[in-house]
Amino acid sequence: MDSLNPNKRLKEEFVSNLTGSSMLELAALSALVPILILLRHSIGFGRFVDTVTPDTARKKKDDEMGGSWSWWAYMATIVVDFLFMVLPVLLFFTVLAEWIYLWVILMTLLLLFCVVSKRSSSYSPPTNGGPLSLRESISSYRVSMIMVTSLCILAVDFTIFPRRYAKTETYGVSLMDLGVGSFVFANSLVSRQARNVLSVKWKNAVQSTSPLIILGFSRLLTTAGVDYQVHVGEYGVHWNFFFTLAAISILSSIINVPPQYCGILGSLILVGYQSCLLFGLNSYLLSNERGGDLISQNKEGLFSIFGNWGMYLVGVQLGNFIFFQNHSTVTMGSNKRARIKVWLLSSLFWLLTVLLDRHVERVSRRMCNLAYVTMILAANLQILGIIMLSDFIPGSKSTVLEQACNKNLLATFLLANVLTGLVNLSMDTLFASATTALSILILYAFTLSSIIGLVDFYGIRLKFW
After folding, report:
1. Which among 425, 31, 23, 35 is positioned nearest to 223, based on CA atoms?
2. pLDDT of res. 130
């Protein structure tokens, strides 16, 4: 029987043995996406586009006379958001990647020009504008994370995606190395623990974890069934991203400590895990030799749980310290203090990352070591800090596409995985020309944006974790 994926081995080799980029380029890439989001917020398109929101569109949809107009107006906003946020990111990560530093400078200057021109004109912000609430800042940050991840998981299979942006094999930093860590940290910031909701019933814990376990086994069976390429050095033979999320959820439910002490527990776990790595565990995890037992076959995924769980706990305390403290919801009055905290912490974690990388152990996503955790914290807080500067930028404070993705973050990621699999099984991505590859990626990104927009338009919300 012919394989559904005849070039499986070539595709696996294409994403193997890579060394990544530099921390400076990673910081530049982490600045580019939030800058593009702020540019979209600052650039208005008049009454037809920028006044449409999911809520107003659904209200008009309920009116038989206005249903058709509301649908077209809503999709128009999705198209505009796609052209100003998603498409530029895709271009910067592929065909324009060689000039990434120049583009960061140009986009920053363009944003400053938009801010100055609007503040010096008779521009009046929308009635619902005002200072950007912390909730909207967090939402925009989470959307930027899922947007980059969704674009990269397919782009990496084409030759127009720079190899230095793909996941590193052992040590190093890269754009795609941010993926799983960013997802864990983004969820920890606004988790129930961070919001001072400590009474978690076992029934609720099982309900939130079961879908992740089901998704993990579904991915395992599907990839094996269609002979899909899997880089074993990433998680192991059977392990995957969803099992990691489920493990973190289970551990956090069993050991449920107040958010004020989560950072202490998380730091102890991270330091202890890093000590084990230095005393020989790293050689075992980075070795290509595997035994016949399940632990040895899935050693990367199983042992990296300690790093991811420690990072999650630190993120819980950071979320509580920055946004919630003694409240269960974020407040408008604490914007300025939160912004200062985010920028100071981002600078601190970047400094720690450099020191750990040079004097303790180099950054390793594969092992989720201490330097990798501080890098994730630094890059994500940098992205969040830039987005929080939106308080100083006239214009809208959110977009339809952002709101749609934020309501279905994990569902967006799942759909992106399904579409990525369909593309890989239907063509040889390795041999696609630059023009063909870019066309497919644009179509993929637009399809993903449109479907998520339509799901939100019809009020569907899928929540797993």
Report:
1. 425
2. 38
- 308 neighbors 376 (Cβ within 8 angstroms): no
φ, ψ dihedrals at 21, nearest 5°: -120, -140
Q: What is the residue type of 108?
A: T
Give SS3 for 62: helix
Alpha-carbon distance values, 22 to 175, 180, 427, 463 (Å)? 10, 19, 32, 35
The residue behind tokens 């583009």 is 103
**pTM for this predicted structure:** 0.90
Amino acid letter at 15? V
> From CA 385, how far away is CA 346, in angstroms rounded?
8
State the amino acid at position 62 in one-letter form. D
> What's the mean per-residue pLDDT of the chain?
84
Q: In angstroms, how far is CA 254 from the centroid of its own chain?
A: 26
CA distance 247 to 322: 26
- Amino acid letter, 13: E
Q: Which DSSP state fits 207?
A: H
C-alpha to C-alpha distance for 151 and 405, rounded to whole angstroms: 14
- Helices (DSSP H) in 298-433: which residue ranges? 299-319, 335-359, 370-387, 400-407, 409-426
- According to the model, what pLDDT value does residue 4 have? 56
pLDDT tens across 410-458, in order? 889 899 999 999 998 888 888 899 999 999 999 999 999 999 999 888 8
State pLDDT tens for residues 370-407: 999 999 999 999 999 999 888 777 777 788 899 899 88
Give the pair of three-digit tokens for residue 434. Answer: 């630059």
Q: How far apart are CA 403 and CA 456, in angstroms?
A: 8
* pLDDT of 162 higher than 90: yes
**Cα Rg, the chain, nearest whole Å:** 22
Residue 230: both structure tokens together: 């899997």
Q: What are phi and psi of 300, to 5 degrees?
A: -65, -45
Is-contact 271 234, C-beta < 8 A? no
- Give tens-digit pLDDT for 17-76: 788 899 999 999 999 999 999 998 888 654 445 555 555 555 555 554 445 557 788 888
Nearest residue to 19 via CA among 233, 181, 170: 170
| Cβ count within 10 A of residue 261 | 12
Residue 84: closest CA among 410, 402, 379: 402
With a cut of 50, say whether residue 127 has pLDDT above it.
no
Q: Provide CB contacts within 8 A for 79, sequence distance 6+.
A: none
SS3 1: coil
3-state SS of 374-395? HHHHHHHHHHHHHHHHHHHCCC
